[in-house]
Amino acid sequence: MDYNARVELDSRDFDESAVDVLMDVLEPYDGTVARAIHGGRIELIFTLPAGSLRQAAGSALAIAATAGHKPYAVEVLPTDEFHRRVNAAPVPELMSVTQAADALGVSRQRVLQLARNGQLDAVKVGDTWVIPRTAAATRGEQTGLRFTGLVLPVGVASNLNQVIDDDAIDVHGPLLVHDDRGRLIGQANTVRREAAGWTVVGVVRGLTPGEYSIIPQVEGRVWNDSSDVRRLVRGQLHSLTVVTGPGRESGFPQARVTIEVSDRRATLTLPTDQPVQGQVEMVSFP
């Protein structure tokens, strides 16, 4: 009985010399070499005789191993069923590199880089790449807009006469960003202590370019109330809340505690196990 095997190799080395070596291996098996749509790895598709599915799977892996690459995934089907599935599978709508770049809001060079690195599902046809529209849509859901801003000023009084001491704030890792309805919308990947206070650089989604006030969320606060000015002497900057509702502003009007959302797109990977925080009440100081 004949079986068809599709073996993905743990390699994305798709240059001409590598393909020639693989085609030599597959020549006795009426095989072909392609690039997998999902992940961009090298894919071997070939036909082989076998007495059982188990024997076919073992033989397929042995043939792939002679190509000099470690197998990543294997699928083996009776040849009749393989052709039935190929004929029944819908042809995905494809986009050019330029169309994908427009859809993702990035340059053509960036799309090519993502395709070559296997970070964007794509198929090389001759000397060019084509991208399934669904892959571009999925990638688009994983991007957002870059933002920067000052989120926690030092030495500036809030509108409740509260001041943060120079060495009061501790920061651990990236900061999650929520909107004022408690929805997770982004992440500040870079947090720096500068002369004016704590500044951030990150990515958000669901916001249009522009300036937004920020409510910094500080946990473990320790205050010094020994003078007329209430001083924060210890606390951990935990997360940020973007003020989007009308008539809401930061508690530090003198310091312009805001972020500026640009029109530049960037990759955004958010944790999936973060609960919605719920409505955030406006406060003069976190």
Helical run tally = 6
The overall pLDDT average reads 79
Q: Provide the spatial order of strands within the biggest beta sheet.
A: 8-12-11-10-14-13-15
Distance between the termini: 71 Å
Number of domains: 3
Biggest sheet layout: 7 strands, mixed, barrel
* Class derived from helix and strand content: alpha+beta
Please mark out the parts with pLDDT under 50 across 5 or more consecutive residues, or reply none.
275-286
Binned, the helix content reads 10-25%
Q: What form results from the Cα inertia axes?
A: elongated
For the CA atoms, what is the radius of gyration?
Answer: 27 Å
Strand and helix order: EHEEHEHEHHEEHEEEEEEEE
Account of the 3D structure:
This protein has helices at residues 16-26, 53-65, 79-88, 97-104, 108-116, 133-140; strands at residues 2-9, 32-35, 42-49, 71-78, 94-95, 123-125, 128-132, 143-153, 162-164, 169-179, 184-194, 197-204, 210-224, 230-243, 258-267. It is an alpha+beta fold and 286 residues long. The chain has three domains: 2-88, Alpha-Beta Plaits (2-Layer Sandwich), CATH 3.30.70; 94-140; 144-267, no CATH class. The strands form three sheets. A seven-stranded mixed barrel has the order 8-12-11-10-14-13-15. Strands 2-3-1-4 form a four-stranded antiparallel beta sheet. The longest helix has 13 residues, at 53-65. It starts with a strand and ends in a 19-residue tail after the last strand.
